[in-house]
Design goal:
The structure is a homotetramer. By secondary structure, the first copy, chain A, is mainly alpha-helical. Helix content of chain A is about 65%, strand content about 0%. Chain A is built from 11 helices and no strands. Chain C binds a DNA duplex through helix 3.
DNA sequence: TATGAATGAGTTTTCATTCAT
DNA sequence: GATGAATGAAAACTCATTCAT
């Protein structure tokens, strides 16, 4: 309070960032629970005790890391989208934005996938993240009004429109699939065919 | 107890089965590492030491559980499929078989998803599982020859043809989606539209 | 269950006894919380993990140690008392039994005193211990009926009849008081004067 | 804050007082070591570092708190005693002063009891506190010369004269004893009977 | 084969204390 | 003097695994 009247060590945001990055790296490498607080601390170049200044406990650290990762991806995906262009064009822009975002940040993507498939996911309030996708929701709604997008449950559109991209990314990691331009274009076409009226 | 009345063989297999089921249940509930060997042992009504008679170590237990789960699902999916019917009809049969299999065994499905998204997956040789899907591979190949299925990378066909079903199942768990007949039919149609020529 | 039909390592009562003794010794030396589980384990010549086989947690260990100590003292105090002798003689026997018990086991006594004056005491159900003192209660009641003992609240009788003995024992530890025969006789006389009618 | 309106000296002493009170409250509630310096600091509304300006370390804080508590009680007990009245009347005055002091400040009393029964007590020089009780010592000495008080070791007089009061206070906390006027009068009578010639 | 006991190495977390301002 | 950040060391407790029977 009124910190300008007092002198003290100040909160070091770089340290927090280092902790986030260390958590992501180690969770991706060792798995969710083998990534111990000590290892994360060491990788972030801080004392284990320091993590507890910024996070309540391990779960809190992981949840906050997940939210950060999801927000950052969402923000990358939706930045610079022209909402007034045709639904098909907008979908294409977003789809490739998405694809580029997750291939640019595969560590973020891997962390989020591991997290979302583990039991911790149940302790996250998804509302906060959903807010980021309002733009997408309204785009699909417009497409349905215009008779361009299938008149089906919204989740089917999301699921066929975007998530197979994640699967293909994982397939490429185990060398079952290569992310050539042709393959990516084919994947986009399949997505579009799945959701268009 | 009552060991007089049972053959050695029978008793063993029941124990192994109990261990598998305990592992699946606890991993689903607590996550990979919170599901400790002692807890699994207790849930399976055996001593921790007994697990080590049947499995080399914890990793071995988890990997074998994963393989068992995957095989069981695959076998359910592909049983009773008439290979000679039209590609579209066969795809439809397999798709609904798949859907019915994973909804009937959601605990198997959840375990497999968590496993496949964690770093342990890297220590599994997928060849063994892939063998189960030879039938699907040749079905898609025939569809492509007949000009009915898109001429794209095989993984795109799998990814759009089947995996979104998993996502929708997860969505239904968090009550974002309901598995009504209409929704499932819509999902199937989206899958077919995505892969058909 | 039916352990004679099974073979396994059996519960080692000597180990439990060692743990109790180590806990008493270290708590007396270092205080309640500086007596760490690791130190207790080391002093008892077992692994820290072994303590957790026999006790739920540190609090459980301390509470059980306290109960053991109290029971052992109570049993020593009341053994061999002839209930039919005069109230004064019985009180004298018990008083000196008590005195001899706690001077013979000063470590038990010190542990109990420290415990009873710390907040943990609130988590102990005293009923169990009180049961041991039924004999004393009925002795005092008889004394009151016979007009030999003051007709005052039972706790006053206990408090003046026995507890000053503890204080004097503590005083002797810091060399403010010596436990000479005369002093002990004087102390007994003061106790008796305090409670007799 | 508001530092303009207060002298340095005043602000300091208030802080120290807050620290003392926080220490007493937390030690009574959580025990000696669970009352951590950080928690005490928070309860006292200061930084942990601030405590170290006034106290060398945790032990120093606890010892100084104990001495403060003991002095304050002693001073309350002995204030306003007329030394020239009869020994019996003076004893009665002091006894009830004592009783009123500790029932008015049960948190001080509890802290002192916990402290005095833990091993830290060994690092306190009791001489300083004893000085406060010179008046009592000389009163008992006069009583012995006058043949009114038993000719026994001084500690027996203290122990039976005053300390049972503490035990009864503790008993009342666990609802084994109620501090009714009659009970307190009975307790006083027992004390007097124990020490009078 | 099967067991419950046992454990060293590890976990998360908190502590008393110091640092930098 | 006063602060919140920072930390090495240690706490309680758990784990995967082995032992002894």
């Amino acid at each position: 309070m009124f910190s300008y009247f007092r002198s003290m060590r100040t909160r070091d945001e770089q340290k927090v960032e280092n902790i986030y990055n260390a958590a992501i790296t180690l969770v991706n490498r060792d798995g969710f629970e083998s990534a111990s607080m000590s290892k994360i601390a060491k990788a972030a170049n801080v004392s284990p005790a320091t993590i507890y200044i910024y996070f309540d406990n391990k779960k809190d650290l992981l949840v906050k890391t997940y939210l950060k990762v999801k927000k950052e991806i969402a923000s990358n995906v939706l930045t610079g989208i022209d909402v007034n262009q045709s639904v098909e064009k907008a979908f294409r822009s977003i789809w490739f934005n998405y694809y580029n975002s997750i291939t640019a940040k595969t560590d973020y993507f891997n962390f989020a996938e591991q997290f979302a498939n583990s039991p911790i996911i149940n302790s996250v309030n998804n509302k906060e993240i959903d807010a980021y996708y309002e733009l997408l929701i309204s785009l699909f709604a417009r497409g349905q009004q215009e008779g361009i997008i299938k008149n089906v449950h919204r989740e089917i559109l999301f699921t066929y429109g975007f998530f197979p991209m994640f699967t293909l990314l994982k397939m490429s990691k185990i060398e079952k699939f290569d992310l050539s331009d042709k393959n990516i274009d084919d994947a986009f076409q399949a997505a579009w065919d799945a959701i268009r009226a």
